[in-house]
Amino acid sequence: MNKINLEEKLSLFSEHWTPKIIEELNDYQIKLVKIQGEFVWHEHENTDELFLVIEGKMKIEFEDHTMNLEAGEMCVVPKGVRHKPMADNECKVMLIEPRGVINTGEVKDNLTAENDVWI
Amino acid sequence: MNKINLEEKLSLFSEHWTPKIIEELNDYQIKLVKIQGEFVWHEHENTDELFLVIEGKMKIEFEDHTMNLEAGEMCVVPKGVRHKPMADNECKVMLIEPRGVINTGEVKDNLTAENDVWI
Fold first, then answer.
1. pLDDT at position B1, please?
2. What's the confidence (pLDDT) of residue B21?
3. Are B19 and B31 in contact (CB under 8 A)?
4. Which residue in chain A is spatially nearest to B98 when comparing CA positions?
5. Which domain holds residue B75?
């Protein structure tokens, strides 16, 4: 049983779009990711996905609107909903989703990150 | 699909030890709770439970040690592990656990909160 300090964990990596697992909750994983620039349009066919902004600002583009999120704000993207995360400047985000979810969903892209990387 | 501002949601209630649901992630619920004083010893037989401190400081007593948590720190209490949350001063906490979890676990107490209360 570990006490986890988010800031400390975020200091352990610097690359963008590579979610790092910091803890598990039953079969769910708590991840931290740093994002900057535009991600790829994708969806997660079988699961919702939680975004909680820890520091900075991000946007999530959906097919019919764009959601702006800043520190202390969160959103659950429902399963099957196409979305594209983006951030003009570096943004630090907590993600929560079931174990094994691929960051780019159904899309294979050079932004597809290695899975199950713990920090 | 809602954008959720944690501070705004926390402004909507003032009582202690009564978790409020702010969102669902598949069959999991994201809750906010304000705590002050001592909770009851209890455990959740079938699920882990995530505590993320949003503001303030709290402690979680376990049978063999005490964990101190402050804003930006989190802990997952494994299923079946007896614990007692407490806070000297008001502390604002995010909880994540499967839908339907009772705050006092197996214990029936005057701190047992009504379940499935959304804000």
1. 85
2. 98
3. yes
4. A26
5. 20-98
When divided into structural domains, chain B yields a total of: 1
Q: What is the CATH number of the domain that holds A40?
A: 2.60.120.10
Q: Which residue of A has its CA nearest to B3?
A: A75
In chain A, residues with a C-beta closer than 8 Å to the C-beta of B2 are 75-76
**Cα B37–chain centre separation:** 13
Q: Give the CA angle between residues B94, B97, B98 to the nearest 5°.
A: 145
Residue A4 maps to a domain: no
The residue of A48, A74, A92, A101 whose CB has the most chain B CBs within 10 angstroms, and thus the best one to mutate to test that interface, is A74
Q: Is residue A72 part of a domain?
A: yes
Per residue of chain A (119 residues), what is the pLDDT tens digit?
Answer: 899 999 999 999 999 999 999 999 999 999 999 999 999 999 999 999 999 999 999 999 999 999 999 999 999 999 999 999 999 999 999 999 999 999 999 999 999 999 889 99
| Band of pLDDT at residue B14, cut at 50, 70 and 90 | very high
B92 lies in a domain? Answer: yes
Query: Where do runs of H (alpha helix) occur along chain B?
Result: 6-10
State the complex-level ipTM: 0.96
| Contacts with B5 from chain A: Cβ below 8 Å | 72-73
* Residue B111 resides in a domain: no
A5:B30 CB<8 A: no
CB of A48 less than 8 A from some CB of B = yes
- B79/A30 touch (CB, cutoff 8 Å), yes or no: no
Of B23, B77, B78, the CB nearest to A76: B23
